Structure formats: structure tokens, C-alpha cells
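Quick one: C-alpha cells for this chain, please?
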Amino acid sequence: MSRTLPAALASALGDGVVRPTILFDAEFTSGWVYLWNGYGDLVFGGNTYKGTGDLIQLSSLGETGAVQAIGITATLAGLDLGMTSIALQEIAQNQIGRVWFGLRDDSGNWIGGAPTVAFSGRLDLAKIAESPPVATVAINYESRLANLEVPRIWSWTDQDQQTTSPGDLGCQYTGAIADQILQWGG
């Protein structure tokens, strides 16, 4: 389902000069990383975003009217080869990634209101391509709807019950009941 553009943001697009600003925050093993598509530092929401210029690229943000998982890819290019081992240690599945979109004027003030979340998802997988003397890391994020496609394998057994509720005795006899022969109707 597509979203409507906030009225303040829509009216700001008609202003003389606007600077589209994309902020990207990602959770890694050692903490959060905050990046934006400009140069220098930018403070938003109590966090300091580091300017990356052209070093970070984001795939297009798609929306659909169907109930469907849409993902994005964040690509960090031009990394030193020594950074790939750090990247491998820091990246883990299901870590959060968000993309924010906002508009700023020539003075750096937000126009049309604060940035809005354009995408929020969970880390799916990462690909590292080494091309000496630099490396490229592409991180795929999937929306929470991707979780709907994951099969839930659950049996009403004591073993499965103990994984979610240790010490619970509610399913301790289900194994014996499965093999029970019952006479019905005399």
C-alpha cells in the first residue's frame, strides 16, 4: 500500500531551492552507524550522521499495493581491504536498518518538517567484493513482511514446548497419546 506525501513536505518541494537529504542508520554488532548523503556531520534526532558523499549508495525504494516484502540494498564502496574483516565481524542477520528522507534549504535547515522514515527493515545478507586496493560491501535489508514467508515449524511435543516455556508440563504426555489406540462406539 503506498503512502501519501506529508502536506508540509509536498509544499516544500515547490520552494525555490531544496536539497534532498537521505539519512541511513544501521545497527551493527558493536552499535549503531549513522550516515547521510552529504559532507561533514549532520545532527538529527540526537544522533550525529557522518557525511559519506558518494561512498554510500542506496537502491531505489519501491512500494506496491500488494502485501509483498520490499527490500533495499545499501552499498558502501571504496573501503580499504583491511575493513572487510571488520565488516564480516560486525554484520549479523536481523539487525535494523532505516532510511530517512527530508528536505533542507541552502542554510541547512529542515523545510517541510523533519525527515520521515522512507524504509525500515532487517538485515538479510551482505556481499563483499574485493577489487584491490578497495572493497565494496553490499548489505540487503528486507521489510518485516519477509517474515511472513518463513515457515513456522512447530509440533505439539514436549521438546518444542520446553524451548519456549522451560519447565512447563503441559505437553509431557503428547508423545504417548499419538500412539494410543482408542475404541470408539462399543
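Residues 22 and 101 are 5 Å apart (CA to CA).
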